[in-house]
Design goal:
Residues 82-239 form the CRAL-TRIO domain. Pfam families: CRAL_TRIO, CRAL_TRIO_N. This protein is an alpha/beta fold. The protein folds into two domains: 6-67, Helicase, Ruva Protein, domain 3 (Orthogonal Bundle), CATH 1.10.8; 73-279, CRAL-TRIO lipid binding domain (Phosphatidylinositol Transfer Protein Sec14p, 3-Layer(aba) Sandwich), CATH 3.40.525.10. 49% of the residues lie in helices and 8% in strands.
Length: 331
């Protein structure tokens, strides 16, 4: 549904006014002074049904309390060279802003390996970026533009996507579930670029299973999407993998300050320095034994489990096709 009624928002607000102090404090970190806009997000995520939105919001606030999410920006992944490994294998960054002021998040879906640290570090890093977006970036943009900005756009680079990505489905599902349950309606549009055959085949299977609201947010662009993306952002805001034509467009260049995935990029430098400042502690020389933060990862719901099952089935089918193709070539 596109619009939530004022009556529904008022009902949910009245219910939230009754919560106890610990939940109120963490709710402040969620809404950042924009209560109506936050209630609207949770209502949209539950099709405008007040009781369901109320439960979702309470569950999210309790998750924040139980996992120390309010303090997660004071717990950087250390030391820096270990964090660099996380950044080099979990490719995400902010390349700039759209013409309307929305942050542009770039995600290297196809080239992320998630092989430099344990699952908990990747989950921690993802949540920290979410919290930095919501508590630092979006409030700063709101102040600068003079109007509320509560969403971002995401550009997903599929170049390099292989069937072996199937091994990361459980981790990606956990991260996606955390977003669905605790950061709903934070992305305006998902732009998918540099699409290989393996993604195209899977997308045909997955798309019919998606909620209509989600399908409306996804745009699969031709090639690296540069021409379409330049309609909503300047060239300087394009991620590096959208700037050039040809097969080399997705490769990470030597200038790491322009590579939005790199720890040397201004976004990651600002984020990491912010967390170190918040921590107030000297940096240890080696990673903490069990990770700085252990976040309870919620189980995927029936709908997401169905999506994962369909995706796994399609990728296995494609894998078998490739295997048969290899046999024919060698014969």
């Amino acid at each position: 549904m596109g619009c939530v009624s004022h009556e529904a928002i008022n009902q949910l607000k009245a219910m939230m006014d009754q919560v106890d102090e610990p939940l109120k404090r963490t709710f402040q970190n969620v809404h950042q002074g924009y209560i109506v806009e936050t209630l609207d997000r949770f209502l949209k995520a539950r099709d405008g049904i007040v009781a369901k939105a109320h439960k979702m919001l309470l569950d999210s606030l309790n998750w924040r309390l139980e996992n120390g999410i309010d303090d997660i920006l004071s717990k950087p992944i250390v030391p820096a060279n270990f964090y660099k490994g996380v950044r080099d294998s979990q490719l995400i960054g902010v390349s700039g802003y759209t013409k309307e002021g929305l942050p542009v998040f770039a995600l290297g879906v196809g080239l992320s390996t998630f092989d430099k640290a344990s699952v908990q570090y990747y989950v921690q890093s993802h949540i920290q970026i979410n919290e930095y977006r919501d508590r630092v970036i979006l409030p700063a943009v709101t102040k600068k533009t003079g109007r509320y900005v509560g969403k971002c756009v995401k550009i997903l680079d599929m170049s390099g996507l292989k069937l072996s990505a199937l091994n990361q489905i459980k981790l990606l599902t956990a991260i996606s579930t955390i977003d669905d349950l605790n950061y709903p309606e934070k992305t305006l549009t998902y732009y998918i670029v540099n699409v290989p055959y393996v993604f195209s085949a899977c997308w045909k299977v997955v798309k019919p299973l998606l909620h209509e609201r989600t399908k409306l947010k996804v745009q699969v662009l031709q090639g690296n999407g540069r021409d379409e993306l330049l309609k909503i952002m300047d060239y300087s805001a394009l991620p590096h993998f959208c700037r050039k034509e040809g097969s080399r467009s997705s490769k990470r260049g030597g200038n790491t300050s322009e590579d939005c995935y790199s720890l040397d990029h201004p976004f990651h430098q600002q984020l990491y320095n912010y967390m170190k400042k918040q921590s107030g502690n000297s940096e240890p020389t080696r990673p903490l034994k069990h990770g700085s933060v252990h976040v309870e990862m919620p189980l995927a719901g029936p709908k997401k489990a169905e999506l994962c099952k369909a995706l796994e089935s399609e990728w296995k089918r494609l894998e078998n096709q490739d295997w048969l193709h290899d046999i024919k070539i060698h014969d």
